[in-house]
Amino acid sequence: MNDEPPLYRRIAADIERRIADGDLRPGDPVPTTRAIVREWGVAMATATKALAALQQAGAIESEPRVGAVVARRRLPARSAGGLERERVVATAMEIADADGLAAVSMRAVAARLGVATMALYRHLEGKGELTLLIADAAFAEIEYPEPPPGWRSHLRIAARLLAER
Question: Rounded distance, CA 62 to CA 27, Å?
Answer without folding.
Answer: 10
